[in-house]
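Our preliminary data section would be incomplete without showing what the modeling component actually yields. Below, a chain of 185 amino acids is followed by its predicted structure, encoded as tokens that our downstream tools consume directly.
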Amino acid sequence: MRRVTLAVLVSVAMVGTPAASAFERPPLLQTVAAYFAKRPADVRCPSTVEWVSDPIWGTAPNPSRAWAYTDMVNDYIVLQPILCSGAAAVTDSTLPLWQRATGTLVLVHEAYHLRRWKWRRNEAKVECQAIRHFVEGAGLLGASPKLANDLLPFALAAHARMVTLFPEYRDRHCTLPVWSLPMTP
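Predicted structure:
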């Protein structure tokens, strides 16, 4: 009888308990985002299940359509899981260069949405700042100057894809960073 009562009490308690968030908040990503936002930054890295079920970006018809978003009302950033992993492990050579570069670019982009400046809601101005400060962001995440330069073509490719598919992200006056050929005399 005691076991049945205990089982019922535990079941009732579990039904009434909200599910814990699967968000991770990597301190390094928060520090780097805060640097560009010029204020504390809450960066959330959801699990794939949480990302796909996110009511803002994870709904049909295409749950993989977003790379990240910033909630400018509640002041937090959510990065797509693969990109979050890339930004968090920018020096991990087992991860593809595109993943690390795009994760870094997207983190810097979203941080500019958190920054309190007149262009924070302008995707073109925010994206321009993100690509212009990509190398600095990669360095803050731990990349050496050589690695940041090696990642830059992948960030430029992600940027080009974004501004081609979504013209509202294109700032025609943006000066892009220049990749250096990795050659020695």
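The first helix runs from residue 2 to 16. The CA atoms of residues 113 and 120 lie 5 Å apart. Preliminary results of this kind motivate Aim 1 of the renewal.
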